[in-house]
Design a protein that fits this description.
Elements: E1 2-4, E2 17-19, H1 23-32, H2 40-50, H3 53-76, E3 80-82, E4 88-92, H4 97-106, E5 112-113, E6 123-126, H5 130-143
Antiparallel strand pairs: 1-2, 3-4, 4-6, 5-6
Helix pairs in contact: 3-5
């Protein structure tokens, strides 16, 4: 099992996480790991984050609230999404997700087409702040992404 401190702890820029694995697998991972791959600053931040359960709880509540907000907003404009408990939605527009992603980027909205993950008709959008999520929904509506 692999976990990062990116989302719920807000430490994405520090690139830190952990693994729980069988000792043999852990040895293989350790052999492949670059030396000094995690800074002391990242390690200290991760330790502090583990002790801050209030922040993690707020992050989790925010994510669930905004996840529902995004899903409902997409539904209102006729765009399907896969139910999620993660920090992103898998969105299924009726138009080509690759071209839609390029058009959204012109509006300052970054989404990730999921063709290389086996979902050629979908893209991934990460849950953001309310203003970011509103910007995404407005851009989707303006682009007419629900048209066939």
């Amino acid at each position: 099992m692999l976990r990062t401190f990116s989302k719920i702890h807000g430490l994405a820029g520090l690139r830190i996480g952990y693994a729980l694995a069988d000792p043999e697998i852990a040895r293989d991972i350790e052999r492949a790991r670059a030396p000094y791959s995690v800074s002391i600053v990242a390690q200290e931040a991760a330790l502090a984050a583990l002790g801050d359960r209030r922040h993690a709880g707020r992050s989790q509540r925010h994510n669930l609230r905004e996840l529902r907000f995004l899903a409902r907003g997409l539904e209102r404009i006729g765009v399907a999404s896969t139910p999620s408990v993660a920090n992103f939605l898998l969105v299924h527009p009726r138009t080509d997700p690759e071209s839609l992603a390029r058009r959204l980027l012109l509006d300052g909205v970054l989404v990730r087409p999921m063709g290389s993950f086996g979902f050629p008709r979908a893209f991934r959008v990460t849950v953001g702040t309310r203003p970011e999520n509103l910007r995404f929904l407005r851009a989707m509506r303006a682009l007419g992404s629900n048209r066939a």
